[in-house]
Design brief:
The complex is a heterodimer. Chain A is mostly helical. Chain A is built from 2 helices and no strands. The model of chain A has no long low-confidence stretch (mean pLDDT 83). In chain B, the strands form 3 sheets. In chain B, strands 1-2 form a two-stranded antiparallel sheet. The radius of gyration of chain B is 27 Å and the shape is elongated. The chains are: A mainly alpha, B mainly alpha. At the A-B interface, helix 1 and helix 2 of A face helix 4, helix 8 and helix 9 of B.
């Protein structure tokens, strides 16, 4: 993997974490408002957002660690 | 002594310009709200200072065409498009073997982008992705730089509702434009994924193969192996769901990154020019030039990375 790919992947990580958590919470709160289930779905949304954030970061970063184990190739 | 030149100009001119700058900075500081709150009102003429800046987060409607409202940010987008189309027409009309200044500048820029595409996506895919990535990059960068032209935000117009609104506004500072770009990037990612992997691409999001395999095993009588496989199958389905959700989140994160950075830059310039008028906003202009370029690179580059991920077969994404 080239240095550019690694750099671009890392650039995307921060906003991805923020957006997924915020999106989860906002969607949860909106559903709460609609279905009168406050605060259950807000909390579910928060945890789902955190889960998606961790999963996405894992997917984005795992190839980078693999690259390091095999030695720098570019 | 008089022949010494710094930055291509005689020394006394440079010193004169520097003195003028410092003088303007001091005057700006004294008349601006920051200085006058420290030193007190000096009774300087009112035209030296600026009015209190107002920033409207939603774009304002400038006028109507056939009943459709035309926002000021869409005019900025149109200007960017026309400028880009004119530029490319002028440059490609007279392509020379020994390029002129404009041609070589664009050749260097596009060559660098093409090189980036090939390095990230590989030779064949780089060629396929280059038009999308380059278009997004050029549009975002030109749009960001367009709104930095002095006077761009100073043209006012009175619209049909009788409001006094800006005629022009950078399209990136209206959330609809980054959202549209993010959706375009999303559609292209899915399109190329489907085109090169076929229906297998959807298997990433709807990973039910293991689940049904284990049910089949349980029906055949291998209960223990089937139950273990069932759990793995459920986890696979859940991971597929997470994958689909992360695709959705990506659109949101693309949108807000571009919108947030561009709007923050615009507000920063307004505030800097308001607090200390005249030359204080100059370093921030330089910063915003860099931010525009970097955001364009990130938007184009991340699209490229996700395109590459979408066409990669499962399990060989590390290459």
């Amino acid at each position: 993997m080239s240095r550019w790919t690694a750099a671009l992947r890392l650039v995307g990580v921060g906003f991805f974490i923020g957006s997924s958590i915020v999106l989860g919470v906002v969607a949860g709160l909106w559903l709460d408002d609609r279905l009168n289930t406050s605060p259950t779905l807000g909390i579910v949304g928060l945890f789902l957002g955190i889960l998606v954030a961790f999963y996405g970061v894992y997917r984005m970063l795992m190839p980078l660690t693999k690259n390091k184990k095999n030695g720098e190739s570019g | 002594m008089g022949g010494r030149r710094i930055l291509g100009m005689p020394r006394f001119i440079l010193i004169g310009i520097l003195c003028l700058f410092v003088l303007l900075l001091i005057v700006g500081f004294l008349v601006g709200p920051l200085g006058s709150s420290m030193v007190g009102e000096l009774g300087l003429p009112a035209w030296l200072s600026l009015p209190h800046p107002e920033f409207h987060l939603p774009a304002e409607t400038a006028f109507h065409i056939f009943g459709f409202p035309v926002a000021n940010s869409i005019i900025g987008a149109w200007i960017t498009m026309v400028a880009l189309i004119c530029f490319s027409c002028v440059i490609t009309r007279r392509i020379k073997l020994v390029p002129g200044r404009l041609q070589s500048a664009f050749e260097a820029l596009l060559g660098w982008l093409y090189d980036l595409c090939r390095r990230v996506a590989g030779e064949a895919n780089g060629r396929r992705f280059f038009p999308i990535v380059a278009t997004i990059f050029l549009f975002v960068a030109f749009n960001a730089w367009l709104s930095l032209i002095p006077g761009f935000g100073s043209i006012f117009i009175t619209n049909a509702e009788g409001e006094h609104v800006h005629l022009l506004r950078g399209a990136n500072t209206d959330i609809n434009m980054p959202l549209a770009l993010a959706l375009i990037s999303f559609v292209f990612v899915e399109y190329f994924g489907l085109k090169s992997l076929g229906l297998r691409y959807l298997g990433k999001f709807l990973n039910v193969g293991q689940f049904f395999d284990s049910i089949k095993q349980m029906v055949k009588g291998h209960l223990k192996a089937g139950l273990g496989g069932l759990l793995t199958g459920l986890i696979h389905i859940f991971v597929g769901l997470l994958e689909a959700l992360s695709e959705l989140v990506r659109v949101v994160s693309f949108t807000f990154r571009l919108f947030g950075n561009m709007t923050a830059g615009e507000i920063l310039l307004l505030i800097a020019a308001f607090l200390i008028p005249w030359v204080f906003a100059l370093p921030f202009y330089g910063l915003e030039l860099l931010v525009g370029f970097v955001q364009a690179l990130i938007f184009g580059g991340l699209t490229l990375v996700f395109l590459t991920l979408a066409v990669a077969h499962h399990g060989e994404e590390a290459t």
